[in-house]
Amino acid sequence: QVQLVESGGGLVQAGGSLRLSCAASGRTFSAYAMGWFRQVPGKEREFVATISGSGGRSLYTDSVKGRFTISRDNAKNTVYLQMNSLKPEDTAVYYCAADPHSGSRNIALSRYEYDYWGQGTQVTVSS
Length: 127
Description:
Layout: E1 4-7, E2 10-13, E3 18-24, E4 33-39, E5 46-51, E6 58-60, E7 68-73, E8 78-83, E9 92-99, E10 116-117, E11 121-126
Parallel strand pairs: 2-11
Antiparallel strand pairs: 1-3, 3-8, 4-5, 4-9, 5-6, 7-8, 9-10, 9-11
């Protein structure tokens, strides 16, 4: 069982920055692909970014490329999402997720690949 706890959400003006953190339990964190997703009311949860267990591979959805950076610190069992140049359309509840089947080299794009989810953290970007 893996428990994930997100933090770092909040209210920020357009153009500002936030860093989300996701702390994970478990002894084999470096073998999990980790992902960030977001969801607004009435819409499906959408992929934002993913990073392999080793940290050597990452991928982003087009709308956040060049603005968001996913990273991880396996010594701290933590994954981060640095969000810069925030836009009102980035407003959502952000969730981190863990795919324990991926191994250290692979990434995971689909929400159906992830077995464990955090409780979510609200990000609100005002115009």
